[in-house]
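Q: Hi! First time doing this. I have a protein sequence and I read that you can turn it into a structure. Is that right? Here it is:
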Amino acid sequence: MGLTGPVTTRWLLGDQLGPHFLDAPDQPVLMIEARSVFARRRFHRAKAHLVLSAMRHRAAELGVQCTYVSTDTYAQALDEVAAPLSVCHPTSSAALRFVVGRGNIDVIPARGFATSMEDFDAWVQSRGRRRLLMEDFYRDARRRRHVLMDDDEPVGGRWNFDADNREPPPRTPTLGVAEPEWPVEDEIDQQVRDDLDRWERDGDVSFLGHDGPRRFAATRAEALALLDGFIAHRLPAFGPHEDAMLAADPWMAHSLVSAPMNLGLLDPMEVVARAEEAYRRGEAPLASVEGFVRQVMGWRDFVWHLYWHLPESYRDLNALEATEPLPDWFADLDANNVDAACLSGILADVRDHGWVHHIPRLMVLGNYAMQRGWEPAQVTDWFHRAFVDGYDWVMVPNVVGMSQYADGGILATKPYAAGGAYIKRMSDYCRGCRYDPGTRVGPDACPFTAGYWAFLHRNRERLSGNPRIAQPLSGLDRLSDLEPLLAQESARGSSAP
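A: Yes, that's right. Below is the predicted 3D structure, encoded as structure tokens:
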């Protein structure tokens, strides 16, 4: 991998669409729309729409500066290109292997992240044999980029305000903040929708979920408007309830910038700078700003770098020996056939939007999959395909390590398993549910509560050395109804709860 001059034609991949992926405003650009990407896997229809809309909008903005090729495969398009090409480091290992394998494309360092690969490698070396912890990485990045710092100390005297950002939801249907800045579809969106319809009719592709209206930014102008609206109207309320869920309010005070950031339309440091400016001007509380900054330049970057730092075999880890296949009702987003209110409502949100925020992903969808022992590679693939902001680099560490604990503790210090009591405390889903989160056995037994104890029983030996889960494991011995609970959950099997 080398450096290249600005005269080289830049191949812009579909997640490298912002101006910071060019070396000069007038640099020649190649973009390739390869239908085989959607033929190989069954993606969410809204995701396919968003990616194609973003690519075509970017090509339209660039005009004659861009050569836009629609073809079946990348190789077909590249075989016709004579000019020397450069490309920013791709975001998946498969894409990197393909590009390097061509032999005639200059791969330049990655862009679109707050920490470079060189700085991450230096940080890893500085750790010696100490565990790679996100919190330590985040603090190092804050110091290095001088974000939310007063000289050498963190503003407010604390690095982390997570303890202030765990409030349950208000007892109202919505959080009561302004909705995000929704984009307005145009003729490019309509052409994308017409093409996807035709490809489906022709049997070339198949999709999950619903498409439309487009909810996520597909242009830099839309992304900046979304960011402006979040900073002005939603950031102040973000922190306290960032871990809470409301059935009628999937967006709450979340930013929705993950999709445009992962398309490359926003650089994370410009996002961080806008949030810090709001704090410095007294327009947003420190706890909300710090929590948001931690997501953008802490967790997001940490996951990106772990994806490249860990061996390729990491994606296949299965420390809990979970081998059950993903059931059709879950894989197909069949929310209408699920009685559990939280699972039904969140599957419906994924079906309709291709997005829910991090707590429904981790503590409802991922939690249920781990409780039931679904094969982690299948769960990872589903998250990648079903979410508009899902990419290989995003989902492999997040699902294998964080959500499914399939790496045995490399990323997370304990499994993120919880019963219905957690969902009751952090959401309003339980109020109208046919199941009782306080009941383990019987027709009213909450599938999350019962599933939690069945999960602990099934993995008791595997988790016995983890001090962070010793107390709940010891609680198994005090359950008088463990035997009927296990029989109940065994009979439930892969059926929709």
